[in-house]
Amino acid sequence: MAAKLKLFLFTCFVLFALNKEANGVLDTKTQTLINVANARGPYVGLVIPNQFEMNPLLQHPSFIASRLTIDHGGRRFRFGLIEGKKVIVVMTGLGMINAGITTQLLLSLFNIEGVVHYGIAGNANPSLNIGDVTIPEYWSHSALWSWQRFGKGPDNELPLEEPGDYTREIGYLRFANYYTSDNETACNATHDNLLNNVWYQPEEVFPVDGFPEIRQHAFWVPVDSHYYKISKALEGLQLDDCVNATTCLDEKPKVIRVLRGTSASIYLDNEAYRSFIFDKFTVSPVEMESASVALICHQQKVPFIVIRALSDLAGGGSAQSNEASTFTTLAANNSVKVVVEFIKILRFFPWMLQDVEK
Ligand SMILES: *[C@@H]1O[C@H](CO)[C@@H](O)[C@H](O)[C@H]1NC(C)=O
Ligand SMILES: *[C@@H]1O[C@H](CO)[C@@H](O)[C@H](O)[C@H]1NC(C)=O
Ligand SMILES: *[C@@H]1O[C@H](CO)[C@@H](O)[C@H](O)[C@H]1NC(C)=O
Ligand SMILES: *[C@@H]1O[C@H](CO)[C@@H](O)[C@H](O)[C@H]1NC(C)=O
């Protein structure tokens, strides 16, 4: 009997202990910490894909860590000050789903006045250089597709196009255009490819002030217009150009505001596709998280901006060899430098914001 009771109690204990970890519901202790933190808000949320991009911020002399951290949903929300501005720093992990979940948790749990997302990116724009730090005005998710049946073309309606689920308005990629033969790309090939076409689709969005479950659509999501406007002041900022005493970028890197960036849960290292999306969409940074942050902030009506440092020419072909591995740290450090400067402007020159609001 005693053994059975012991086993029962042990099982209950294990279930209880597991329950705390295995269940996404907020426990009372976490909820209390969140309430305390929110009473001291609002905060600027810094959303960062990976450790190597977050660490230079945590080590930056302008970042003063608070003792408070709150763990929830497999994420760690770190509190602190940057130039006196209250911030919450959180790492998402790789890709669109992680970035979306983490951003939604941040906005659902905490008192957030705005979101700054930063990191490194591939480059699709031939007029920019490795090391440049880009601030795009618009972001899209470019991997929601309708993949068209072989034999159908641009004049054929897509499945579910009529009820408004899918559209031919954004454009398509034709695989047959990328046939290679005798080592040459046949860009106007007349032959077919069984992979046929993929059509880019907008996301379904459900804005916080809309009617629940009534969808809207969004492909290009603008960053906050006030944040974008004040980010112009970052353009003259001096950036580092050397990894060490001997390895430097050919061109002095610069902060530059650009028209567009695009994201997908795809590591893009392919010259043909990089050129295609540049020609089609005029995108500069290409990476794996920003559009998720953009789409969440857009739906929750929270101001956001994205700062991405170019660490490589996606697909290679630049004069700088083996870019991604060589310049990743430099690019990550420079993105942090620009973020700190942006927070400084938010903190000390709020009149810049008010000026725009009039
Ligand atoms: C990046 O910053 C860290 C400190 O945050 C420093 O240790 C490292 O040397 C820097 N690396 C480059 C390439 O600038
Ligand atoms: C095509 O590529 C092969 C292998 O890389 C090479 O041996 C050949 O000379 C190339 N042919 C032409 C026409 O460039
Ligand atoms: C298209 O193909 C024709 C015939 O093969 C060729 O002469 C022409 O240069 C090609 N045009 C382009 C833009 O590649
Ligand atoms: C500088 O960095 C490059 C690239 O990471 C590396 O190959 C080289 O050995 C480094 N040089 C010194 C002196 O540390």
From TrEMBL:
Residues 44-344 form the Nucleoside phosphorylase domain. Keywords: Signal. Residues 1-24 form the signal peptide. Gene3D superfamilies: Nucleoside phosphorylase domain. It comes from the Eukaryota. InterPro entries: Nucleoside_phosphorylase_d, Nucleoside_phosphorylase_sf. It holds the Pfam family PNP_UDP_1. PANTHER family: BARK STORAGE PROTEIN B-LIKE (PTHR21234:SF19), PURINE NUCLEOSIDE PHOSPHORYLASE (PTHR21234). This is Nucleoside phosphorylase domain-containing protein. It comes from Cinchona calisaya.
